[in-house]
Amino acid sequence: MADLADLWAKLQAAKDSKSLLKKNLTEDLYNELKDKKTSFNGTLADCIRSGCENPDSGVGIYASDPEGYTVFAPVLDKVIKDYHKVDKLDHPEPSFGEDKIDFGNLDPSGELIVSTRVRVGRSHDSFGFPPVLSKEDRVNMEKKTLEALNTLEGDLKGTYYPLTGMSKETQKQLTEDHFLFNDSDRFLRAAGGYNDWPTGRGIFHTPDKKFLVWVNEEDHLRFISMQMGGDLQEVYLRLVKAIRQLEKKLSFAKREGLGYLTFCPSNLGTTLRASVHIKIPKLSATPEFKAFCDKLNIQARGIHGEHTESVGGVYDISNKRRLGLTEFEAIQEMRVGVEAVIAEEKRLS
Ligand code: ADP
Ligand code: CIR
Predict the structure, then answer these.
(1) Which of 340, 344, 292, 293 minimizes the C-alpha distance to 321?
(2) For an engineered disulfide with 107, which of 40, 86, 141, 230 has Cβ 3.0 to 4.6 Å away?
(3) Residues framing ligand 2 (Cβ under 6 A)
(4) Which ligand has the nearest atom to the CA of 17?
(5) Which atom of ligand 1 is the closest one to the Cα of 214?
(6) Which atom of ligand 1 lies at the shortest distance from residue 273's CA?
(7) Ligand nearest to the CA of 60
(8) Of 243, 244, 245, 227, nearest to 235 (Cα)?
(9) Closest ligand 2 atom to Cα of 56
């Protein structure tokens, strides 16, 4: 694996790189940080490897471990402010607003919304992120996660399916059906995200697959609530209930002003992405589609995840902001955005 000096040379040679790493890691900062190490043995090389090896990165930097957000703060804070478009890192305390929710089903007639999903990422504060983990760490982390998941009850009770031993066909089917992750992201690969694959990775889900947990994908944990149709309230409340139960059993990495810590600085804060798969052939065909979404702080993706294409006019529409607002505000921003998308699609039809 390339050492830090080689990575830095590659970054300097990448004159056309538009990444936030390239923009924010100045020579002075590089010199200030190059010999630093976290207590998890995380280094600057662990943080910047992906961005140096992939000059076409958008962000280009990950945190080596939860403490990396402190030790490498001189560069990470700049990237975080830049990515999330905030001047100050003063993310509020979590507030899910369960008692204030009144949004119900966003598409009661079921004409446009195919399915609804809300996810958050969480990290164990006692483990590093992928670049500093050993195979043994991954196995221990999986064990600790499972002990907590196995305490879930009622409609959250489920079964864990490790990737080790799962047939390729099952993995493919679960991925196509939008339930499972795979190892196909070259940015994450370069960051060490697939080291020791598939050890320690797996998926926990309820029999109806409405509550799922991704174990050791990009983040230590991704909690996911999803179902067919547009009942955002039911999906969100199920996720909040799961978070409430699991935070009693596990201690999650969190930092004042940054919220919950994730491997990629783009996911920090609430870590919440609430999305619908929605049929919008008319609106998506207009030249103003992107501007329409930007104005509402929502983002359109293809239906097989980030960087994929739309199929048949169906898009993944989600909240864009995750840092600097509460969970309740993020879900409301998504709701308002999706309602506006539905109204516009109907107007154009
Ligand atoms: P995330 O970072 O939120 O996990 P991705 O864009 O990588 O997002 O998507 C992960 C998976 O979740 C993909 O298979 C995607 O198709 C699926 N997904 C996202 N939103 C929805 C939704 N509203 N309904 C069904 N599947 C969804
Ligand atoms: C990049 O920098 O482009 C990759 N490391 C992926 C960043 C992922 N997050 C994002 O754009 N939301």
Answers:
(1) 293
(2) 230
(3) 50, 57-60, 187, 264, 266
(4) 2
(5) 4
(6) 3
(7) 2
(8) 227
(9) 3
> Letter for the amino acid at 204?
F
Quick one: which atom of ligand 2 is closest to the CA of 58? 3
Ligand 2 centroid to residue 320 C-alpha, Å:
13
| Inter-CA distances, 340 with 106, 115, 229, 276, 319, Å | 11, 17, 17, 13, 13
160 three-state secondary structure? strand
Which of the pair, 2 or 1, is modelled with greater confidence? 2
Question: pLDDT averaged over the chain?
Answer: 96
pLDDT tens digits along 151-173:
999 999 999 999 999 999 999 99
Closest residue (by CA) to atom 3 of ligand 1? 273
Q: Is the CB of 316 under 6 A from ligand 1?
A: yes
Q: Which amino acid is at 123?
A: S
- Residue pair 117/235 in contact by the 8 Å Cβ criterion: yes
The alpha helices in 54-163, defined as continuous H runs, are 68-71, 73-84, 135-149
**Six-digit token pair at 250?**
């596990």
Ligand 1 touching residue 189 (CB < 6 A)? no
The side-by-side arrangement of strands in the sheet containing 273-279 is 159-162, 202-205, 211-215, 221-228, 113-122, 273-279, 314-319, 298-301
Ligand 2 center–CA 156 separation, angstroms: 31
Output the pLDDT for position 2. Answer: 59
Ligand 2 centre to CA of 222 (Å) is 17
Per DSSP, the residues of 168-218 read HHHHHHHHHTTS---S--HHHHHTTTTTTTTTT-EEEE-TTSSEEEEESSS
**Which residue among 215, 219, 306, 316 has the greatest number of ligand 1 atoms within 8 angstroms of its CB, and so is best to mutate?**
316
279: left (phi over 0), alpha (psi -120 to 50) or beta: beta
Distance of alpha carbon 128 from alpha carbon 143, whole angstroms:
15
Q: Which residue has the tokens 């919220």?
A: 259
Around 260, how many Cα atoms within 13 Å sit in the side-chain half-sphere?
A: 24
Is this prediction's ipTM beyond 0.90? yes
Residue 31 CB neighbours (<10 A): 10
